[in-house]
Design a protein that fits this description.
15 strands; 8-stranded mixed sheet; Metallo-beta-lactamase, Chain A; single chain
Length: about 280
C-alpha cells in the first residue's frame, strides 16, 4: 500500500486497486503500474465507498476480508466488463456476512440487476450473483442527479459521453474533493462548461487517459480520451492534481513513465495512477 502520507482520521482518502482499461494484463512490463482493471476505494473519514468493480475489486476484497463493513456501496460508472468483472470474486460477498449495494446511473434510472443477472448466469458464468453467500441490492439513478447513499452521504454525479453512457462522481469531505471521470470520450469544444463546473477546484481529478493524441485518431468513437485532454480539463477547472487512469492494456511501464514525464511537463500535479497507490487529503475545514 503506497500511502503518500500516513492515513488521517477524518481525511479524504483514495486508494487505487485497479487502473487498467479493457482487459487485465500481467508480466514484468507491468510491474510498476499494475495490470488490474478499474477499482478505486474512497474513504470519507471512516465511510467507505468503492468506485467500479473491475478485477481490482478482488484484490481490495482480499485486503478487507472479514474486517469489511457489514454494508458496502459500489458505484458503477457503467457496466462494461472491465468495470464489473470483479463482483463475484469480492471476498466479503463470499463470506456470506455482508450486503453489497450497487448503484448504476447510465440506464435511465434502472438498476444493474437485469444486466448483471444476464452476465452472471450459464453459459457465460456458472452461478448467478444471488447464489453467492452474501447479498446484493441493486439501485438505479440517473447520471447528473445527486446520489444520496443510505446513511445520507451525498455524492455528486455527471453523465459522461461513452457508448451506452457512463457516470462521473464527485466526493466532497471536510473541504477536500475527488472527482472520478473515467470512460469518457472528449467532445468539441473541449472541455464542456458543465464538466468544468463539476470538477472545479477539486484536489484530485481521476481521468480517462487511455490514449495519447497520436493514438486517438485511429480510435475515434471507442469512448475514451487522452491524457492531454485530461490536462486541458484539469487546468480549466483549477484541479490541483491529475491522476491519469484507465490505462491502455498495451502500455507497459517504460511507456507510461514517458507519459508521466510528459504530463508533468504540462501540469505539475499530473501523474499516472498505479495499482496500490494511496493518497490522503487532510481536512481543510
Amino acid at each position: 500500500m503506497l500511502w503518500t502520507t500516513p492515513p488521517g482520521r477524518d481525511a479524504l482518502q483514495v486508494h487505487f486497486w485497479g487502473v487498467r482499461g479493457s482487459v487485465p494484463v500481467s508480466g514484468p512490463g507491468f510491474a510498476e503500474f499494475g495490470g488490474r482493471t478499474a477499482c478505486v476505494e474512497i474513504r470519507c473519514g471512516s465511510r467507505l465507498v468503492i468506485i467500479d468493480a473491475g478485477t481490482g475489486l478482488a484484490a481490495l476484497g482480499e485486503e478487507m476480508g472479514a474486517h469489511a463493513p457489514a454494508e458496502i456501496d459500489i458505484l458503477l460508472s457503467h457496466l462494461h466488463l472491465d468495470h464489473v468483472s470483479g463482483l463475484p470474486f469480492f471476498k466479503p460477498i463470499l463470506l456470506g456476512k455482508h450486503l453489497v449495494r450497487t448503484y448504476c446511473g447510465n440506464l435511465d434510472g434502472e438498476s444493474a440487476r437485469e444486466v448483471l443477472d444476464r452476465l452472471y448466469s450459464p453459459p457465460l458464468f456458472p452461478v448467478g450473483l444471488d447464489h453467492l453467500p452474501g447479498r446484493f441490492e441493486h439501485i438505479g439513478f440517473r447520471g447528473g442527479e445527486p446520489l444520496r447513499l443510505t446513511d445520507g452521504l451525498l455524492v455528486k454525479t455527471h453523465p459522461l459521453h461513452h457508448p451506452g453512457g457512463a457516470t462521473g462522481f464527485r466526493f466532497d469531505h471536510r473541504g477536500r474533493s475527488v472527482c472520478y471521470i473515467s470512460d469518457i470520450e472528449h467532445t468539441a469544444p473541449w472541455p464542456p462548461d458543465s464538466l468544468v463546473r463539476f470538477v472545479e477546484g477539486t484536489d484530485l481529478l481521476i481521468y480517462d487517459g487511455m490514449f495519447s493524441e497520436a493514438e486517438y485518431c485511429t480510435c475515434v468513437g471507442w469512448g475514451h480520451s487522452t491524457w492531454q485532454k485530461g490536462v486541458v480539463l484539469a487546468k480549466a477547472a483549477g484541479a490541483k492534481a491529475l491522476a491519469i487512469f484507465h490505462l491502455h492494456p498495451a502500455h507497459e511501464d517504460d511507456h507510461l513513465l514517458q507519459v508521466e514525464q510528459a504530463a508533468k511537463a504540462e501540469m505539475r500535479g499530473a501523474f499516472v495512477a498505479r495499482d496500490g497507490q494511496a493518497l490522503v487529503f487532510a481536512p481543510a475545514v
